[in-house]
Amino acid sequence: MNPIPSPRPRPILSPCIGICTMAADGLCEGCARTLDEIARWGGFDDEQRRVLMDDVLPAREAARG
Hints:
By secondary structure, the chain is mostly helical. The protein has helices spanning 35-40, 46-64. It is elongated, with a radius of gyration of 15 Å.
């Protein structure tokens, strides 16, 4: 009998919400990422994505008010 393989972890999805306008502060109005972060998202590993999503973006959103 073959063991049931464990499910593969799902990749962390982009925080993009379709409001793709860069603000004067250099951050996207919709997701609060920089252009560099947006461009590099596809190459980030899950840990880099997690740090951005859990630590960096919430702090930026809070600073925006």
